[in-house]
Amino acid sequence: MMKRSALSLALLAASVTSLPALAQSAKDFELLRNEVLRLRKELDELKGQQAARPAPASAVVAAPQPAADTAALTERIEQVELKQKDAVVAGDIPGSFRLPGSDTSIKLYGYVEVNAVREFKGANGGNDYSTFLPYAPLNGSTARKGETYLHARTSRLGIETSTPTAYGPLGIKLEGDFNNDPRLGGSAVSGDVKAIYTQQATNSYNFRLRQAVATFAGFTVGQTWSTFMDVDNAPETVDFNGPIGSTFIRQPVVRYTYATPDLGGFTVAVENPVSYALDSTGAATKSGFSKTPDLVLRWDKGFDWGAASLRGVTQQVKVVDDDAGTNADKRGYGIAGTGLIKLRGGQDTLSLGLTYGDGVGRYFNYLEGAIVDANANRILMERALGTVIGYQYKASDTLRANFVGGWQKNFHNAYTDYALTNGFGAGQYGVNKRMYQLHAGLIYNPVKNVDLGAEYIWGERETLAGEKGSLSRFNLMARYTFN
């Protein structure tokens, strides 16, 4: 027994000594986990040895174990328990760690980002953090002016967790940024006096919810990107919003994806029903919101040459206004296809996207979607087509160039006729007939997790009345990502 205890103590001492080195190595988390499991087994054996030692009946029957040996064994056991408690063990998702005393893996991610923007032409509809072509000032407008501003409000913070269950991992994601002005109750605009006061003092912005979503056994429940939006195959831009002509929307969803090894993934989802109709003045009607969830169907598949996605959405627009005697109901729809093609042996990529719909509304960036004609007790829907094309050229492992274009068109129908007749097919906030936008930028990655970007953006819009407006801006960006 004495020899066995001595050997165990020697092994235990060596193990305890090796723990700090293992914990300091980012590449040795799996080895650390196995070492902790081995130490737990050794610890159980040592405790068993200690418990099995009989108390000496007398000095004649058995010689007592040295008190020093018992004290040393107890001390070693305490050291191992302490090291196990303090050890950081790798989690089940990349870049995560296991919460002590739990099977849950947790990962912190996000980035700190600073942008410097120079508006050469137009005031960009009042936005400073990103482009928003649909409301760009019209030619000859007094709002046309050059502006320069810096901001860090698109900086992002997120938490991702994974917990094993008998039916697979349960994932949680909670993410937000600071793109919310506390004085305005939403995203601030550079020309607003309240925003100017904020920037002259503390430049404070509230934390804004982006994603709060759970994933489990093929289900996704919570607020995240719409199923109708293809985030993975979208082209990269320095600008926060990106080009016109694509889908850009986050909202609460409940969806299920059935993945197959050969045919790809098939997804069905119900999503937040907030499609609305405008009244004869161009304002949203007080009762003009849909009553049933939007329905989205989707197919995705990866190939050796890239990836492809097809999607469809249908949404209800319903207006019930007893005061006006209106009870109208109509269903809109949208279809979209996107793809990513690998070029130059996979170094470069070509992104393609096409979206079309009748009353697709908010799933575009940006359309109103529908108008209620109270006199005729009917809903008129906007019919639109949008396309996006992007090419990324990787000059080296640290330098990439992005060239992106977006185009969007409203087709002539009863919706456009009603808008013109009632006076909201013209002016800065009038319905647009067509828009197109171009991005040309460079992103340099001098060291890991650091991106330095520069991008020029040009866009032009034309209202239903034939008025034109444009934007021209230059955006510098510095970002440090942690994950």
Automatic annotation (TrEMBL):
<keyword id="KW-0175">Coiled coil</keyword>
<dbReference type="InterPro" id="IPR045748">
    <property type="entry name" value="DcaP"/>
</dbReference>
<protein>
    <recommendedName>
        <fullName>Porin</fullName>
    </recommendedName>
</protein>
<feature type="coiled-coil region">
    <location>
        <begin position="22"/>
        <end position="49"/>
    </location>
</feature>
<feature type="signal peptide">
    <location>
        <begin position="1"/>
        <end position="23"/>
    </location>
</feature>
<keyword id="KW-0732">Signal</keyword>
<dbReference type="Pfam" id="PF19577">
    <property type="entry name" value="DcaP"/>
</dbReference>
